Amino acid sequence: MNRFSLSERAILVLYGLTAVLILLVLFMSYFAGSSTNTHILDKEPVLFNDGWSLYREGEVLSETVLPLKDKRFEDSPITIGRRLTGDDCTNGEWLMFVTFHSSVQISIDGRVCYEYGNMESKVFNVPPTAYHFFRLEKQYEGRVLTITTDSPLKKYRGRVNDIYIGDRGSEYIMLVRKNIVTLAVCALLLSLAAIFLSMWILLEFRIKKKKRNYKFLWLAAIAALIAVWSLSETRVLQLVFNNIEPLSVYNFEWLVLIQMAIVGYFLGNSSRYVEKINMMIAPVPVINALLINAMMFMGIADLDTTVIVSHFCIIIVSAFEIFAAIKSRKIEQNRNTGMIISFSGDSVGFFLLVFTVLVDMVRYYVGMNVDNAMFTRIGVMFFIAALGFSELRSNIDLKLVQKQSQTYKQMALHDGLTNLSNRTAYQEKIAYLNASDTGRVKTIVAIFDVNNLKSVNDRQGHEAGDRYIKSCAYFINGFFRDFATLFRIGGDEFAIICSLDDKKRFFAAYDEMQLKYTLADRENINFAYGYAEFDESQDQDLYDTVRRADKMMYECKLRMKKEGQAETR
Fold this sequence. Notes:
Alpha-Beta Plaits; four-stranded antiparallel β-sheet; Jelly Rolls; alpha+beta; rod-shaped; 16% strand
C-alpha cells in the first residue's frame, strides 16, 4: 500500500468513528445483565443423553435420546425431563450443555431453579449463545428434572444439544480440548500481534524518518482482536467472564469489522482502477454498522435478519474487491508482458480470507455449529500474516533503496580525493542560499586556489600533485571546519561558505590561517585566497559576492607571482 489520498484518509477517519461506535455498543452490553453460572469441574465429564422424556403441556409425549431436533416444536418451547437417581446426585455433579440464542429454564419438580435469557438485554432482542452449568444437589435425588428451551428464532427452536455430566474442572478441560485447534490459531495470532508491535516500535522509534507508518500497529491490533474474537466465537471465554453478552455482541459486530479490514487492505493501492472501486465500496461497512445496530436497538429486526444484512454486505464488498483486484492485475500484466495473471502473497492471502468467510457463511445457513467461524479465523490469520510479510518486505526494500539513494547522493556530492564536498554540492548550496533573502544576506564566501600545481605534476608526477592538493585542503579545512563547509570546486580550487552569524569566528580563523600560512612549508602548502561578504550596495545576488571573492583571490595570486611565491605562467 502506498501513500493515502485525502479521500482515503477520510475513509480511515470514518472507519475509526465506526469502530468507536462498536466499542460503545460493547460497553453498553457489559451492563446488559445477561449472564450465566460458570463453574469449573475437575472430573472427566460423560454424555448424559439417555433416559430423557419429551414433554408437551406437562405430559410425557415420548422417550427420547439427545441431541434432539423435533420440528413439532418449531412454534413452541421444547421441554425434556428425567427422574434423577442417587448416582446422578451423590457426588454433586454438574450438568453442562449449550444453547443457541435460546432462553433456558431448569426446574426440579416444577420449581424453577435456573433461568437464562429472560433478563432484558440492552443490545440483543435474542439471548446470546451460551454454555449452561447446573449443579445436581443431593436433595434432588428421586425428583424430576426438566429443561425448557425456547428461541425467538425459528431455526433454533425444537433443538436440544448434548448434555454432559461431570465434576469440577472437567468441563473446562473438555472445552479446551475440543477447541485446541482454535486455541493454537489464537496463540499464533497473538504471536503475530507481538511481532507486528515489535516491528512497529523498531521502525517508528529506532529508525529515524520524517513520516510515521502505522501499518504494523494496525496489523498488531487486528491480529489481537481476531484472537479474542476466535476465543469468544467458541464460547471458551465464557468460562473466564461471567457476563457473556459483550462476547456475543463482539462476535456480531465483527461482521462489520471484517468488511472494514477487507476494504482497508486496498486503501492506498497504486492501481487507479482499484482505488476507484475501493472508494465506491468503502461506505458499505459504515452503512452496515449503522443499519444493523439501529435495527437491533429499535427492535425492527431480529438477529437472523441483521446477520443476513451483514452477510449480504460482505458478499458485495468481497465481490467488488475481487473483481477490482483481478481486473487491475490483468491490466498490469497485459501492459507489461501479456503473460498469464499472477498474484503476490498478500493477494493470495486476501482471496483465501474471502473464500473462508464465504465458506463459514454457507455453514451458518446449512447447519448448527457452536463455532460458526472455524474457517474464517484461519483465513484471517493467513491474510494478516501475508499483509505483515508484504509490509515488512516493503519496508526492507524501502530502507535498501533509501540507503542506496543516500550512497549515490553522497557519491554525487562528494570529492573522492579530499573527502570534501564537491562542485555540485557547492553550486546547490549557493543556489539554495541565493533563493532565500535571509540566506543570501547572511553569507560569507571564501575562494582558495592552489599555487604551483602544474610544476609539482611536471617534476614529481600526478601522485605527488594529489598529495599536494590534499595537504592544502587539510591545512585550510583545519581552520574552518568547526563552523563552515569547505568545497573542492575545481582541480586546484576550493571554496568556503560561512554564515554571517559566525563572522567573528570566520575572521579569527582567517587571521590565524594567514599567520600560520606565512610559517608553512611552501613546498607542501601554497595557495592564494580571497573572501567577500554579501553587500547589498555591491551585489545583486550571491553570485556577485562569489565573483568579488574570486577577484580578491586573483589579486592575491598576482601579488604572490610578483613576489615569486607562485608560478608565473
